[in-house]
Fold this sequence. Notes:
Blueprint: H1 6-14, E1 19-23, H2 30-40, E2 45-49, H3 53-61, H4 63-68, E3 74-78, H5 86-96, E4 103-107, H6 111-121, E5 125-129, H7 135-139, H8 145-151, H9 155-158, H10 163-184, H11 191-203, E6 207-208, H12 211-218, H13 222-234, E7 238-241, E8 257-260, H14 263-269, H15 275-278, H16 284-297, E9 304-310, E10 316-323, E11 326-333, H17 343-352, E12 356-360, E13 367-370, E14 373-376, H18 378-387
Parallel strand pairs: 1-4, 1-5, 2-3, 3-4, 11-12, 12-14
Antiparallel strand pairs: 6-8, 7-8, 9-10, 10-11, 13-14
Helix pairs in contact: 5-6, 8-14, 12-13
Pfam family, one: AAA_14
GO molecular function: ATP binding
Domain AAA+ ATPase: 16-132
Amino acid sequence: MISRVLENRILRSLRFFPAVGILGPRQVGKTTLAQKLMSELNKPSIYFDLELAEDFQTISQNTSWVIENNVDKTIVIDEVQRLLPLFPQLRALIDRKREAARFILLGSASPDFLQKSSESLAGRIAYHELSPILASEADSIEIPMRTHWHRGGFPDALLAPDDGFWLQWQQNFIKTYVEQDLSKLGISISIPLLNNFLRMISHVHGSLLNYLTISNSIGISATSVKRYIEILEQAYLVRRLEPWFVNVSKRIVKSPKIYIRDTGNLHFLHNIKQPDDLTAHPIAGASWEGYVIEQVINVLDPAIQPFFYRTSNGAEMDLVLVDGLTPVVSIEIKISLAPALKRGSSESVNDLKTVNNFLVTPKGGNVAVKPGWLHCNLNELLQNLRTLKIINI
């Protein structure tokens, strides 16, 4: 079993909060992680999966009885978004006997899960988002970074026996999301058009998000495009990275950039079937950029927020890490093995006044390339950020 970075954070929350919510896309490993947590808690536990008819009936019809007769146990409820009326009942039962680790609630793509649980369980629940397997986690079982970058971090896809099975898993995963989950979440367009929409998003991966351009390309309104991208974000399929522009007097680009969060999904949508096909593909540079950004964001200290930076006169930085209102780290990401820092990077650092600046490539080397700049690979970057107490792994 792959050890997950999130495990210790969740165990810490369970020592204080009555309920802990673990969020994430389908097949990311939430159930596996919950089962591991159950074995490590200092109290017995019981598990219900609301996708099973008998478990759904048990919980929905006998909520109070089940909970009161298992008051000494941690109750794990999987796919809890299928029974949203449960949350007000949980609040009453928690308040009747408030103690740590009473519930672990697992939920996948559902905007209503966060809203309903936040409304009902405010102050009683801590949330944790489980990402696909990270590079640092894959490295612990000796999966090469090149393989992880190509296949992405969904466990079954990453651990597939060969690239053919990886491709088949991706086909099934995207089909499930397109034909079932996304339509339930409110994307009310035909399946062929939704497939085209996802492929269009894959082609603007790493670019400034222009709703009108996407609208014109696939023939739906810009308002619908914006709403559908919000749904994809809530379903943990895409990430919108916002620009940093607080307290800066220059003309700043204020549109977000968009990324498909899992590079395995991205490469499938581009029909990149094996790692050798990736390096020569036009999407390779943007893919590497999104890959590095996702590995960093998922282990950031909660106090640190991620942004990018771009001005109308050419200053640009791929990732800026901000503590409060202070940029503390600038990260430029290049796929070239012999990159050169451009004027725009230097201008960005002058604007942002960051002391710690990193140029990240696949090769790296932890080599100073100019004052205030270190050239490193992904593993070296994570080590440096850990030393700076920017990340928690």
